[in-house]
Amino acid sequence: MQTIKHVINKITKRSSIIRSINHNNNCKRLSSIAFNQPLSGNTMPRAGNTAETSGTFMRLPSTPLHKINELDVCILGIPMDIGTSLRPGTRFGPRQVRQESAMLRPYNMATMAKPFDSLNIGDIGDVPINTFDLKKSVDIITNFFTDNILNSTSSPPSSGNNKIPITIGGDHTIALPILRAMKEKYGPVALIHVDAHADVNPEMFGEQIAHGTPFYRAVEEELIDCNNVFQIGLRGTGYAAEDFDWCRNKFGKNNVITAEEIWGKSLTGLMERIRSHIGETKPVYLSYDIDSLDPAFAPGTGTLECGGLTIYQAFEIIRGLKGLNLIGCDLVEVSPPFDMNGTTALTASNLMYEMLCVLPGVKYGNE
Asked: SS3 for 65?
């Protein structure tokens, strides 16, 4: 009897030692990767911050530009609203979206995505635009992306040479200078544009650059591949019954999806069609205007249109991008002064988190 107990104890002790060794090896493997992690709510109360994480998205460590080569994903803000046509305030969008992101945690419980275990993600701050000159600001933005993010020669630790920018706007004008920078690196890119408005005006009050013109300019300058452009959520009133026909003629009738076409529907089927159409290798840029959502969900924006998407549909759109070659995303038109409760910015921060979860290289579950 004592011999049996002795054997059992030895086996138990040996198993415990093996588990301890495996645990230590796993810890060493994870620590050797040294990916940035959001500051936990169990380490610092969510109402608080450290000097390193103050004012960053999800309370990630702030990354100075001279250390940008350590990153796979760059989160940055563009505090600009001088391209707006009605209600301003999006210059405060990056600040409040970051503030409301303090509630987010690292792991996606619905999709099992583990972005912070897969990629090195950092907040690099804001682009120093010229608040008094829209055209100069557009050039500043393009140069910032080209010089600091897209033309890096050093390899980030996880996903090769390409850093992925996730940008917090700012009004929708910012999509034009970003796409100009993207073309320099990738050529004309596929575009998924989620918005209440088509943003294809040739001009506004005689100006060719404004938040209602970026995708007309993008077509004109061949920044996007018109055979691989999808617009989702368009709606509202127009100046002519044919206002959306320019988009249908340029991008394809089935690639322009109005809000009315998808009322009360799941969008998983639509996203399957989009993934099949674009394929796995084509560089894809996502431009997400918060006014694509119905004002019931996102009142804090500049040009509201009733009858929009639900938050659930927004999640389906972004989660449906998994498997595409996403090379950048933006989330624009959050205007905090028109939603003092912060609900719009909270929604925007969650959509940005979902973008992180579908980037190339993100692992899921037990991967």
From this structure: helix
Residues 23 and 57 in one domain: no
CA dihedral 99, 342, 261, 84 (to 10 degrees): -80
Say if residue 14 is in the same domain as residue 120: no
Looking at the 3D structure of the chain, how many domains does it have? 2
Helix segments in 202-244, DSSP class H: 214-220
Distance CA 285, CA 349 (A): 18
Q: Tokens representing 316?
A: 């389906």
CA–CA separation, 132 vs 142, rounded Å? 17
Q: Which residues contact 366 (CB under 8 A, 6 or more apart)?
A: none
pLDDT tens per residue across span 253-293: 999 999 999 999 999 999 999 999 999 999 999 999 999 99
Strand 73-78, strand 189-194: pairing: unpaired
User: pTM score > 0.85 for this model?
Assistant: yes
Match 């989009």 to its residue by tokens: 274
Pair 91, 42: CB distance under 8 Å: no
Q: Are residues 243 and 204 in the same domain?
A: yes
Say whether both 16 and 121 belong to one domain: no
**Who contacts 1 (Cβ-Cβ below 8 Å, separation ≥6)?**
none
Q: How distant is the alpha carbon of residue 136 from its chain centre?
A: 25
Length of the chain: 367
Within 13 Å of residue 261, how many CA atoms lie on the same side as its CB?
14
Q: Which residues form the domain of 273?
A: 37-364
> CA-CA distances (angstroms) from residue 322 to 302, 326, 363?
30, 9, 11
Residues 20, 106 share a domain: no
**36-60, pLDDT tens digit by residue?**
999 999 999 998 998 888 899 999 9
